[in-house]
Recover the amino acids of this structure.
């Protein structure tokens, strides 16, 4: 019984999420003025879209219940590793400079591989940091510091 | 006729400067590169280059970005033929007969013929554009907000329903894109909508962050860690093995012609993109063939027609984009976004007001297509070797460029985080088979649609019927309604059949 319920719930997930986004839009947007037909306010368009989202979400729930659509397995590890790499880059770029944040980005993202090769990552980050510095800072004048400790 | 010659000479002056030639070359080479490599599409590459174009002249920027787009169509057939993996989605139809040809040892011939067919398709559509786009623009000069609203709505509905896969999911993504487009300051009243108190969001979440997230970061999340070293025998692709027999070449001409016409037609339609064009051209060839059973086993018609069609469709998509300002697909929407960054809004007056840009772009298409012919036939061995770049090097490199590109929007990490969120969203959409292109289209057209809706209602004093009283907008909106009804009808028919089957089953 319970595995079955879980399966159905999972099938409904995309449609439910879409409908929930619509409901959230309605909730947050209730302060925006809808205006009159003659002069529609900033709340009119969001209201229409929110209703459309809820409607299409319900349709998708029905469709997925009747005909389960294909779905890829979700690889949580690669999502987390790539996110961690980007967050590490963002946290360090202003404080520690281009070289260190590039190294962190490359190194962390290489952890997504089944067998990471650390030496490769080191060389790649040195190469990218120097080529990138030449292109973007010297060439395009982006305001990065190479190294700030 | 004199007009055309004058315009062409203006275009040649624009496109044959060192700077324009250089960036055209960069664009088509980069396009071929990302086209060859599975896992990175033209959209990701174009959005990665968007920040760089802040520093370029708008004409040169557009020449480069457009070059990436059509260059990718040339490159994408390489992986399709050699690996049975389309380099970008638009080459999926080319796998069907291209890969069997490679297994028969005819890979070189397949590569040669897809390139010539691509060239034929591209050239046909450019010619069409030269004559058709100015005419269309002249017709559209009298369009009011009502017409624009109607055309955009039709474009969105068509983009979601005519794509491959569930039309309902496409529709959902268009609407979600419209919703994301609402974020930011409302220009009429100055009210912040859905900014959650972040001042950075007052101009919206931005095209670059969204596109890089949904098309760049999401693709990396999907492919990273799955990398296997590809083994390709690059040495067997010699220059001599490329040359088809006269018989082969002649067989490819008819399908290329038919593919060009079909592809151009589909390219002009809003919403229907090159993937659809390629598959329809393939289906057409199979239907009119004397012996359809040859298809799927290495038929030359099966690679020539789709390749001509997807290139024609890509070039023809510029017609509505540049003459009406209405992008037919997500890539065109990004290009319009790029123009708007430079303060140029495409519309019916675009060709008259920016003749150097328009005709320069057209001439650059010719130059680019000839460059691609050179890049893809004598230098094919180079691209084949590119395919052997291990992903463990490729993906971190792309990630690096994405981070820098998004950071450079306003030299702030805020939008890097936004892009990351969009990346996770894109990954989930991909996993559940929700198409990403309609999302981007909705995002870009959304604010324009709202603006035109407001203006029209202001003029009509709140009367919605005005949309149907004006003939052009009436026709377009009616078409949109018919398309939606069609989707609803077919879904219901599907559902009833499913229910009946389920009852019979139990």
């Amino acid at each position: 019984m319970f595995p079955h319920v879980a399966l159905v719930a999972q099938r409904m997930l995309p449609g439910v999420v879409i409908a929930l986004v619509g409901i959230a839009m309605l909730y947050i947007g209730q302060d925006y003025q809808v205006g009159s037909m003659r002069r529609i306010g900033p709340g009119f368009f969001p209201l229409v879209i929110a209703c459309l989202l809820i409607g299409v979400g319900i349709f998708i729930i029905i469709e997925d219940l009747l005909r389960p659509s294909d779905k890829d397995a979700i690889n949580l590890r690669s999502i987390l590793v790539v996110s961690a790499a980007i967050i590490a880059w963002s946290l360090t770029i202003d404080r520690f400079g281009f070289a260190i944040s590039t190294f962190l980005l490359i190194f962390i993202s290489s952890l997504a591989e089944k067998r990471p090769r650390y030496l490769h990552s080191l060389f790649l980050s040195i190469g990218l940091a120097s080529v990138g510095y030449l292109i973007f800072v010297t060439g395009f004048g982006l305001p990065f510091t190479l190294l700030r400790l | 006729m004199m007009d055309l010659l004058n315009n062409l000479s203006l275009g040649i002056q624009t496109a044959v400067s060192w700077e324009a030639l250089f960036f055209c070359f960069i664009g088509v080479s980069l396009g071929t590169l990302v086209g060859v490599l599975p896992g990175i599409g033209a959209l990701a590459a174009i959005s990665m280059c968007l920040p760089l174009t802040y520093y370029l002249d708008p004409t040169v920027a557009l020449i480069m970005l457009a070059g990436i787009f059509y260059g990718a169509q040339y490159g994408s057939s390489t992986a399709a033929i050699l690996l049975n993996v389309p380099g970008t989605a638009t080459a999926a139809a080319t796998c069907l007969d291209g890969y069997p040809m490679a297994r028969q040892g005819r890979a070189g011939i397949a590569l040669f013929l897809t390139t010539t067919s691509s060239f034929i398709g591209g050239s046909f559509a450019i010619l069409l554009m030269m004559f058709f786009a100015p005419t269309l623009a002249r017709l559209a000069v009298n369009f009011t907000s009502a017409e624009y609203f109607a055309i955009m709505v039709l474009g969105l509905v068509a983009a979601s329903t005519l794509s491959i896969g569930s039309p309902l999911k496409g529709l959902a993504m268009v609407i979600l894109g419209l919703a994301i487009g609402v974020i930011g300051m409302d220009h009429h009243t100055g009210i912040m909508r859905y900014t959650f108190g972040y001042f950075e969001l007052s101009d919206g979440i931005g095209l670059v962050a969204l596109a890089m997230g949904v098309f760049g970061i999401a693709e990396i999340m999907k492919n990273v860690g799955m990398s296997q070293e590809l083994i390709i025998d690059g040495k067997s692709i010699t220059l001599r093995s490329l040359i088809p027999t006269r018989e082969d070449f002649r067989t490819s001409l008819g399908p290329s012609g038919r593919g060009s016409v079909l592809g151009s037609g589909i390219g002009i339609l809003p919403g229907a993109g090159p993937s659809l064009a390629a598959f329809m051209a393939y289906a057409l060839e199979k239907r009119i063939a004397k012996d359809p059973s040859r298809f799927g086993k290495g038929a030359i018609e099966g690679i020539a027609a789709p390749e001509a069609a997807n290139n024609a469709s890509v070039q023809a998509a510029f017609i509505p984009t540049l003459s009406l300002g209405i992008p037919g697909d997500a890539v065109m929407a990004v290009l319009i976004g790029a123009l708007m960054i430079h303060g140029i809004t495409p519309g019916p007056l675009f060709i008259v007001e920016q003749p150097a840009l328009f005709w320069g772009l057209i001439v650059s298409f010719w130059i680019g297509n000839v460059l691609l012919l050179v890049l893809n036939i004598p230098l094919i061995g180079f691209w084949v070797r590119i395919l052997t770049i291990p992903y463990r090097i490729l993906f971190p490199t792309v990630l690096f460029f994405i981070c820098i590109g998004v950071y450079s929007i306003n030299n702030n990490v805020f939008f890097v985080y936004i892009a990351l969120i969009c990346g996770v969203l894109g990954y989930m959409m991909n996993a559940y088979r929700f198409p990403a292109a309609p999302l981007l289209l909705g995002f870009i057209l959304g604010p324009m649609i709202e603006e035109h809706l407001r203006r029209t209602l202001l003029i009509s004093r709140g009367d919605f019927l005005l949309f149907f009283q004006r003939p052009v907008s009436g026709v377009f909106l009616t078409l949109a309604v018919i398309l939606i009804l069609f989707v609803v009808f077919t879904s219901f028919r599907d559902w009833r059949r499913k229910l009946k089957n389920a009852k019979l089953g139990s």
